[in-house]
Amino acid sequence: MNTTSVTEVLDAAPLQSRSGPASADIGSLLDQGPYTAMQKIVVLLAALSIVMDGFDGQLIGFAIPLMIKEWGITREAFAPAVAAGLIGMGIGSACAGLFADRFGRRMAVIASVLVFGTATCAIGLAPDALTVAALRFIAGLGIGGALPSATTMTAEFTPARRRTLAVTATIVCVPLGGMLAGFFASHVLPLYGWRTLFFMGGALPIVLGFALLATLPESPRFLARRPQRWNELSALLGRLGRPMPEGTRYTDAVEQASEQQGGFRALFAKGYGRDTVAVWVAFFMCLTAVYSAFSWLPTMLQAEGLPLAVAGSGLTAYNLGGVIGALVCAVAMTRWGSFWPLLICCAGGAASAFAMQVLDVNQNTNLLIFGFGVHGLFVNAVQSTLYALCAFIYPTGVRATGTASALAFGRLGAILSAFAGATIITRGGAESYLTLLGSVMLLALIALVVVRRHIPRRLPGL
Q1: What is the CATH number of the domain that holds 362?
Q2: Residue 189: which domain range?
Q3: Side by side, which strands form the sheet with 15-16?
Q4: Which of 64, 190, 344, 447 has the fewest C-beta atoms lying within 10 Å of its C-beta?
Q5: 323, 172 in Cβ contact below 8 A?
Q6: What gap in Å lies between CA 79 and CA 93, rounded to an integer?
Q7: Coil, strand, or helix at residue 79?
Q8: Residues 174, 89 contacting (CB under 8 angstroms)
Q9: Is residue 232 part of a domain?
Q10: Secondary structure (3-state) at 8
Q11: What total of structural domains would you count in the chain?
């Protein structure tokens, strides 16, 4: 027999004893193998769910001025309706992570999309702000749940060398969805009103939810932890271009070795507590800035005397800048690690907000809109790439819980923005609003300095 051929076969095959079944490490199979078309399709499906997440999540920001006018209420009176959606997002974020770690990433993504799509559709029938608040709370459960579940799915289908960019490209779909919502609202609102906006905006994710039900597979790293589903995993690996022998046993050696306990307590286990708290604070500050824009930017610009169409373009520019900034920051992090790119973007977010305070809203309208685009570029660059940082910090067994918990804590900042935004716009106008945006980005910078497990710089040649 040709001994060279035998050696080549043994080197290429999974580890196997003479008396036992084959054994394969799922981490090595995914991280060292090719990035196949099937994996890219899964990332695309996860990204589409986040596009719809951002789309439905931001429709309310464009509709608020018309809803307030129709019902004859003040901005402060509508703030609880905004806050209810954000509270739902916080609960959805926390629950979805625990659900995804226990029952699977696939159903967490699908259920989230169907929940927020159905509730958004129902807002079109709302007779008053209280009903809007109840429906936005339900929609928020789904909107909050989609983000950590989809990013975890993306992280676990992507080789390590491409993970930061893939996760960020998924999260960048939040501002992309918001940008699409802006274009959509600018055409639908003047012709059909805000009710049709929600009918149509909710129908799209419902269709996507059923498409995901038919096409989206479960995460291979999740399946590797469940021996009763190893046959399903073997079939999936075959579709991913990694065919395995029947009866193969699966491990996840690197990540299982780093896991001492699971669940929420693991986030504060030895070595993780400092990073967990720092990342939570960074999420809190970033989401305060992001949702101050998502919920109140068109309202603030309209309060300063700009027409509704022009006021809406401020949020569209913010989201467009966010798409660009997140992708550029992700590429920078892939090459130089996460420390300096994140700090530079935090500083840029603060500086751009403070710089806009010298502009006159009516005399420098175009420059102000451009300024919000620049501000959105920096803020969303930080917010979007924080998910990649979470995916790096936490191992598989608590990755979804870690990401979801950080996002859930961050939603408290979003809830703060619901009330603070309305009050600040009414009492302090644009100057106070911009002070809020700049200050929270400075605090996010300080939090990210504290993080110890930053994504490392890529070595030359890798």
Answers
A1: 1.20.1250.20
A2: 27-450
A3: 15-16, 22-25, 249-251
A4: 190
A5: yes
A6: 21
A7: helix
A8: no
A9: yes
A10: helix
A11: 1
